[in-house]
Amino acid sequence: MCGLFAQWSVSAVEVGPVLAALRSRGPDDQGLWQQPVAGGLLQLLHTRLAIQDLTPAGHQPMQSTDGRFSIVFNGEIYNALELRHQLERLGFCFRSHSDTEVLLEGFARWGVALFPRLNGIFALAIWDSTGQELTLARDPLGVKPLLWWRTSSGWAVGSELAAFRAARRPHQPQLDPLALEQFWTWGAVQAPRTMVRDLEIFPSGHWARWRPGQPGDRWQLQAFNSWPERSWTTDQLTYAEAVEGVGTRLEQAVARQMLADVPVGAFLSGGIDSAALVALMGRQTSHPVQTISLGFRETGSVADERSAAAQVARHLGTDHRSIEVGGAEAEAWFPDFVDALDQPSVDGFNTYLVARCARQQGLKVALSGLGGDELLAGYPSFQAAWSHQQRPQVASALRARLPRRLVQRLGWDSAAFEAGAASGAAWFRQLPRGERLEIPLAAQELEPQLVSLDLPAQLSRLELAGYMANILLRDSDAVTMHHGLELRVPFLDGDLVRYSLQLPGPYRMRPGSVKPLLVDAMQGLLPDSVLNGVKRGFELPLARWLQDWPAPQLDPGLLGHSWPARVSRARTQFLRQPRHYRSWWQWTVLAAWIRAWPNLALPAE
User: How far is residue 10's CA from residue 38's CA, in Å, rounded to a whole number?
Assistant: First the structure.
């Protein structure tokens, strides 16, 4: 995994500040390739976190053997060895053992038809000097970030906002008022927006091509990935076959994602998702798996995972480290967390803390259980939806996933929301036109694709496109790469996702059991305390910590006339009932993020 930046305009960017902004993503190496193109300058910049082929042969930007293609790439290609063998049979000779060279020569052979062949997580830019065109691509679920900024006189793409800020692209950045509203409503900015106006998130599962002199905005955008649009019935697949299918594909995903020339460890919480990964990792190696868990000195009402994680570690024989963090350390590390976050979010501090500890323990790659809840129906919203078999009532279950302040602002009650709802996928139709802008665009665009899926599959698609893409993946990548730690997510393996989305709803839901397919697939590998355990989220004792932290030093009136009242309500609510800390935490993060970007123009009244 790495950091990348590319740009074309009549003026060059200052290379040093951009590489410095990306250095935490790639502390092992850095590089620059540039060439005059169409009256401007094309620049490719890269910082490397060496995971496969640690030699200089993996240096980027990398050029093909004939010099025609140049690439900058962030990610991991898990089927690189398989593709390498295919290309060798076609006559290609490789100079390195890196997956970057496989991408480069694969693109030379197959062009954009390469992207559907990939099993991995990736964001890349490839320049074709003969065809005079640049191609971008991003993995199907958007595990790896890619942002772009486009104008009539130039463009830039990169791994994070910090690189654009260092490159002064745009030259005078402005805070996007709608993105600000999305953050306050959802806890994160919703793609394709970012906090910076006109700087957008490149869509996952797409490639784009730029040709100098092409009419319009010069970009061609095309999807290369599609997900299943129909669910199997119980007549087409038995439950035992479904259990075997999930278990086999998850084990294959873990085996693929342990590929590295550095040690690979795991975050271990004691819950079934991370425990399942560690159990399967142990079957791939003769050495104890290195695992990390995090606990807190002041727990308050938050469950401490260390005891459960230690029990799993003993059962599986891992090399386990249990780390304790207190409020004083959390406060001291908070500014660095905001710097790592790239965009403000209500989430991410938990992953930041465990990633920091994992890197201090020497880990460079860690597997995470992200995606298990979304894919295998682990959230309470799945159970709520399944408990109502009548289609109009599904809207109520989906409504439960909306932020409470949005529901209250719209004045909804359950009966009004459910009335006239034609399908579970049509929940956002109940929104007044102006409020639709705050709903994730991905969820709106998904509606036509969901009508033939059963209810759990509909919810999985919505979760993957919403909460997973806009919060969990974005935050996790930012805060782990900030520490030079590569995070891998086997539950989001493409083969496993496609298979799971087609499974019959009754197989993914069982009264009194969460994720029954995973539970049954892990029988004999994990203790009963894990298989039958109660689901708990990875929470921080923020209610306790924030009581000791100073109030943010930012005038909320700078953001608009409604903000002083919002912040005052959040502060009052927190002081009266500290367990209602979410809004005050949001303001704490947002204020620190804005103060860290002093030249960002704020919304005008």
Answer: 9
> What Cα–Cα distance (Å) separates residue 195 from each residue in 181, 201, 208, 393, 593?
10, 11, 23, 35, 10
Check residues 527 and 393 and name the one with the higher pLDDT.
Answer: 527
Report d(CA 62, CA 29) in Å as an integer: 13
How, if at all, do strands 219-223 and 147-151 pair?
Answer: unpaired
DSSP string, 340-396: HHSS-BSS-HHHHHHHHHHHHTT-SEEE--TTHHHHHT-SHHHHHHHT--SHHHHHH
Helix axes 582-595, 177-186, angle to 10 degrees: 150
- Dihedral over alpha carbons 510, 512, 516, 521 (to 10 degrees): -140
The residue among 132, 138, 128, 79 whose CA lies nearest residue 107 is: 128
CA distances from 282 to 131, 293, 296, 440 (A): 47, 17, 28, 39
What's the rounded Cα separation, in Å, for the pair 364 and 263? 7
CA–CA separation, 286 and 489 (whole Å): 22
Cα 503 to chain center, whole Å? Answer: 24
Count Cα atoms within 13 angstroms, Cβ side, for 488: 31
Dist. CA 74–CA 122, nearest whole Å: 6
* Alpha-carbon distances, residue 369 vs 41, 150, 229, 340 (angstroms): 42, 35, 25, 21
Beta carbons within 10 angstroms of residue 272's beta carbon: 25
Q: For the full predicted model, state whether its pTM sits above 0.85.
A: yes
Residue 398 has pLDDT above 70, yes or no: no
